[in-house]
Amino acid sequence: MPTTLDGGGLFRVHESDIPFVCYLDANGQPTQPLPGWAEEGSLLVDYYKAMVKAREADRKAIAMQRTGVMGTYPSCLGQEAPGVVYGKQLKKEDVLVPYYRDLPGQLLRGVELSDIYLYWGGDERGSAGPGYGQDFPNCVPIATQAGHAVGVASAFRIRDEHRVALTTCGDGATSKGDFLEALNLAGVWQLPVVFLVVNNQWAISVPRPIQCGAPTLAQKGAGAGLPCVQVDGNDVIALHEVIGSAIERARQGKGSVVIEAITYRLGDHTTADDATRYRDSEEVRKAWSEEPVKRLQTYLHNRGLWSPEQEQAYLEQVKLEIQQAVEIYQKTPLPQVDDLFDYHYKDLPAGLRRQKEEMQGGLGHE
Amino acid sequence: MPTTLDGGGLFRVHESDIPFVCYLDANGQPTQPLPGWAEEGSLLVDYYKAMVKAREADRKAIAMQRTGVMGTYPSCLGQEAPGVVYGKQLKKEDVLVPYYRDLPGQLLRGVELSDIYLYWGGDERGSAGPGYGQDFPNCVPIATQAGHAVGVASAFRIRDEHRVALTTCGDGATSKGDFLEALNLAGVWQLPVVFLVVNNQWAISVPRPIQCGAPTLAQKGAGAGLPCVQVDGNDVIALHEVIGSAIERARQGKGSVVIEAITYRLGDHTTADDATRYRDSEEVRKAWSEEPVKRLQTYLHNRGLWSPEQEQAYLEQVKLEIQQAVEIYQKTPLPQVDDLFDYHYKDLPAGLRRQKEEMQGGLGHE
Amino acid sequence: MSDKKTLVEAVNTALDHAMADDKDVVLLGEDIGANGGVFRATQDLKSKYGLKRVMDTPLAETLIAGMTVGMAAQGLKPVAEIQFMGFIFACMEQLVTHAARMRNRTRGRLSCPMVLRAPFGGGIHAPEHHSESTEALLAHIPGLRVVIPSSPVRAYGLLRSAIDSPDPVIFLEPKRIYRVQKQTLPETGSRLPLDTCFTLREGSDVTLVTWGACVRECQEACNTLAEQGVSVELIDVATIKPLDMETILASTRKTGRCVIVHEAARSFGVGAEIAARIFEDLFFELKAPVKRVAGYDITMPYYRMEEHYIPDHKRIVIAIHDCLTEP
Amino acid sequence: MSDKKTLVEAVNTALDHAMADDKDVVLLGEDIGANGGVFRATQDLKSKYGLKRVMDTPLAETLIAGMTVGMAAQGLKPVAEIQFMGFIFACMEQLVTHAARMRNRTRGRLSCPMVLRAPFGGGIHAPEHHSESTEALLAHIPGLRVVIPSSPVRAYGLLRSAIDSPDPVIFLEPKRIYRVQKQTLPETGSRLPLDTCFTLREGSDVTLVTWGACVRECQEACNTLAEQGVSVELIDVATIKPLDMETILASTRKTGRCVIVHEAARSFGVGAEIAARIFEDLFFELKAPVKRVAGYDITMPYYRMEEHYIPDHKRIVIAIHDCLTEP
Ligand SMILES: Cc1ncc(C[n+]2csc(CCOP(=O)(O)OP(=O)(O)O)c2C)c(N)n1
Ligand SMILES: Cc1ncc(C[n+]2csc(CCOP(=O)(O)OP(=O)(O)O)c2C)c(N)n1
Ligand SMILES: [Mg+2]
Ligand SMILES: [Mg+2]
């Protein structure tokens, strides 16, 4: 029988010294002195406006799904904050490798809202718009985008470009090998890539504690030798500090960081889901008291940086913009048969050409 | 511009507090008081004998490959210690889920050496012998065995059995998602599984630092919430303490542990490899001065627990045993065509029956 | 009638009955517990059998496949769910190198009595990557069984047999018809064989071979053709691997003509093997070349256009007429 | 002659020339750096082009595939090596859901000009899981190209074209013939088309269709048959996907007979599609049914028995005689 080193504490769980960053509490009160830029306020107003717009656009998408104008849609309600921050902090030449709940960030990156609607409307052309630049399209197969992000970052390094790749994923995604393999590479190669885990506490019906036994998800970076940090994912000031510095650090060639933004999925997983089947309404009620938009609004009101009148005017403007996007989306004609065939290879192979003609014949437009 | 929290040390790499356990230094001198069982000595002699036997069996396999009697073979030279320890510490009813360099452990588990030779001789029946019990066969697709191990451990838990699964892998394997996904599950489900990473510093030509940016491989457990520990992989006393306690801990329902055993691959990756292409002979020379067999031999000699005469007699006995295994291996006739067909399904489907007859016809034995 | 069940309810019932009969039957997958699966295939089973037997896993398909192999090697009868077939690709290494080979590489010492269930195919306006039908990839792998039900009754009987099977079964559920039809299930515990095709309709002019959701469009086509005086023999392959060619050959020998319908891309699809086998074995008896009606060799279009991809009643009827008028 | 090269040397030369011509060509994989690849396909390239362009990756095939997609989307031309085809299955999710679809799902906004190389097939007495030939799995996926050379000259020209290709190419190298034949390579930089089969030998009695290492046994068979007065037309498919049926059909139309040879398991293999297509298109012109000589529907046996699995010269000759004597 071996001596029980265990009793001696050999097998203690690795001590977690992961920092947690927060500036504004759930009531919009500062918990510590704010950074200068936040005191100044104008960027905070921008963040606020971007969140409000995202939330309206999201609400519209759900409404369209309910009325049969759009298919299954995954709402970003409650987790708008990380997106508006990276959306503003990334440079145009950087590359976003998103998951599928990144509407707030994508809008700031320049993606047309009508394209986002078109995508969820079941049309590949929604991933084609010029607004995406070199950004990746939404990624549905969980965590697979992490591999792309380290590939993009490798390309930057190979070409000596001072660009950064930022990739997002959910809490559930951190269990999938793709994510972990990518962290490991970023650690060995010191790649200019930022991993942003948007921990909204649920992966469909699976709650965070059932997803991983570690106290933080950020510490998945430890095994890859990466710095890891938790941040209040409903606090744009904290997010700005953490994401902004991580991007800068990566740009300066200092390598990769894993950020876990703690937030909450206020809505159902998608419009096809019914979260009341598996989670407590009490939990959701509590989460509503911590959500990012109200929190920042309170702070801005308190500081006199934003007024109900401004809110009113802005909301009207946003609704107009959204209505325009809806119209563009709804007026987009069905794709041609060419669209379905012509993008599998740069040049259409002979066999596919014949099949295309066959399909065109069948649809009656030769 | 965000405040540079970085300057403030936000993005420090997670502090590593991974313990490293060692009792005997490279010269066979105790570095700290030994546990009682080691003072007593008889188990140490058993470990020693098992390592010597494994090394001889390994040498023979290489010799057979060189003379064309066996195919590609991966030597375990230099990393015999972890295997003899888990081989003795696991109970028969436990399940070993090995990788492909586990000859030392497999012999102690009861696998016939002739079966091990038969396996590397290119014959599936080498994985069939009753000596394997419920243990898994060698696993060649790197890290895939980790998933099996957590499955086996889950079965134990479901059936309320006090059994343990132990799975081994190399340093390279820790980069593969399969390994990391399995750790994560073991962490959430608190499974009775021990992960033993045999870090022999090389994954074919890829050295440990190019495999992972973290200071230890053990800390990959951190992201899964598992205790992690490093151990001198050439020191059977330390290995006994760590592996033995981990197995016991798991058996008691306290969950899983990640153990990184630091050792060295003294030989080529396999007989098909030529390590001089990519590694320094100086490094190998140094590693020879730290290898496990000599180290324990020195200690046993110093303590008067083992003599040159005993060594001589034991070696002769071992060589005889190995020769017998070689003969059994070499006399094993080729498999029948039935063997190739009959184990794809419990009952041979009609289509396969026809193909089998066709092959039998072709081989001229209807 | 309340005791009639949809296909997905039949799956649920089969799982329920199998779990009741044999405590070694355990379920694992993403969202199969409290949520009952995103299609409700495992609804109520967690509350009935407890969390030791109905296990919500972390989000990791490779892990799901790997641990299922481990459980099966220990003699459990695990039934894993992959939420959509579009996410089955991460299981391929485990399926090909382990599940399919465990028995063979240990010459029967260990085996792999597992079932991997996945909803598959298009037609429900699902998000990207949720409409795959790549059964051909699995059918090529020696050691696997690939089974596809096309009705509630067959879902029940085939799934019971799949769970009984001492070898790994990939059980693909055509989600397009998860809820389109209700049937009274057969007697509790009744099984359907995993080594035969089902002849759904006898006929004399042409043999129509299909599986899964396409059975529906084929049945429609049979009705249309019957009105036109064409007698079609309709075969539901059901078990794609190992393939029961006897039934298909016997029917085609009788009719002299055959049309194969599937949703997956045409090239290198399951239809190719069936067509090749018919041609090889009945070359001198065929009255016309075998025809394939299948998906085009393109990625299943995202949902606005998916209906134009999936073989419909019209394409099937035309193909059968073509086949009948040849030579 | 010293400037003659083996197939694996031709691969090395093609990589070398492509890297010299275009700095966007980068290599990644396991052991491809100092070690030059376990088969030496990347020998000396790291010292020549530096570690930024010849990257030893951690041991993670899913990652390799994923990062290659990422690099390619950024406009590099990455050539990744998977050490053996037996380990390609972990790449399937990335290949199917991303590499093959990137251009289509972004309607050309992003693309995926990558090459994934892997040695494949049996016959070298390799360890378990090192002898797979599952090209059919990849051939079924719209958006991929699957290319297989069968000689040093074709390895050079096809690999150069694969690297040029604006779309993903799976380049499978038959390791059994890595070193059996030396050829003088064509002019530096010459390409071979990725959309045509190669007619290696003209003949009039029967068309013999194959690819990869089996070309060798087929050539032997052609010689034997020539002595027996049988004139065989030998076609090396080379690009499996997209498939150039024109060449195969034209030849079979001429000879009226066709035999297909491949190493992979017969059922649901590439041969099924080729056979089905010939039958469909030439039904009324064929003099005899198309025959397939292929691996059995079993896991490639571990090496003691592998030679009994791989189609040999004898089985090919018999099949051709059978084909010639029918009806
Ligand atoms: C590989 C893969 N497996 C399963 C799914 C089905 N699925 C879609 S979202 C989801 C949960 C994701 O949870 P999380 O990563 O936390 O992101 P969230 O949706 O909560 O933002 C699952 C299982 C998928 N899309 N991809
Ligand atoms: C999935 C997979 N990829 C690649 C290989 C080829 N290969 C065999 S051993 C090896 C290195 C393994 O290194 P490590 O895990 O450190 O174990 P070691 O051989 O050093 O004991 C590689 C790349 C494989 N067998 N499986
Ligand atoms: Mg989540
Ligand atoms: Mg190693």
UniProtKB/TrEMBL annotation, chains A, B:
<protein>
    <recommendedName>
        <fullName>Pyruvate dehydrogenase E1 component subunit alpha</fullName>
        <ecNumber>1.2.4.1</ecNumber>
    </recommendedName>
</protein>
<dbReference type="Pfam" id="PF00676">
    <property type="entry name" value="E1_dh"/>
</dbReference>
<keyword id="KW-0786">Thiamine pyrophosphate</keyword>
<keyword id="KW-0560">Oxidoreductase</keyword>
<dbReference type="InterPro" id="IPR050771">
    <property type="entry name" value="Alpha-ketoacid_DH_E1_comp"/>
</dbReference>
<dbReference type="InterPro" id="IPR001017">
    <property type="entry name" value="DH_E1"/>
</dbReference>
<dbReference type="InterPro" id="IPR029061">
    <property type="entry name" value="THDP-binding"/>
</dbReference>
<dbReference type="InterPro" id="IPR017596">
    <property type="entry name" value="PdhA/BkdA"/>
</dbReference>
<comment type="function">
    <text>The pyruvate dehydrogenase complex catalyzes the overall conversion of pyruvate to acetyl-CoA and CO(2). It contains multiple copies of three enzymatic components: pyruvate dehydrogenase (E1), dihydrolipoamide acetyltransferase (E2) and lipoamide dehydrogenase (E3).</text>
</comment>
<comment type="subunit">
    <text>Heterodimer of an alpha and a beta chain.</text>
</comment>
<feature type="domain" description="Dehydrogenase E1 component">
    <location>
        <begin position="48"/>
        <end position="336"/>
    </location>
</feature>
<keyword id="KW-0670">Pyruvate</keyword>
TrEMBL record, chains C, D:
<feature type="domain" description="Transketolase-like pyrimidine-binding">
    <location>
        <begin position="5"/>
        <end position="180"/>
    </location>
</feature>
<keyword id="KW-0786">Thiamine pyrophosphate</keyword>
<protein>
    <recommendedName>
        <fullName>3-methyl-2-oxobutanoate dehydrogenase (2-methylpropanoyl-transferring)</fullName>
        <ecNumber>1.2.4.4</ecNumber>
    </recommendedName>
</protein>
<keyword id="KW-0560">Oxidoreductase</keyword>
<dbReference type="InterPro" id="IPR005475">
    <property type="entry name" value="Transketolase-like_Pyr-bd"/>
</dbReference>
<dbReference type="InterPro" id="IPR009014">
    <property type="entry name" value="Transketo_C/PFOR_II"/>
</dbReference>
<dbReference type="InterPro" id="IPR029061">
    <property type="entry name" value="THDP-binding"/>
</dbReference>
<dbReference type="Pfam" id="PF02779">
    <property type="entry name" value="Transket_pyr"/>
</dbReference>
<dbReference type="Pfam" id="PF02780">
    <property type="entry name" value="Transketolase_C"/>
</dbReference>
<dbReference type="InterPro" id="IPR033248">
    <property type="entry name" value="Transketolase_C"/>
</dbReference>
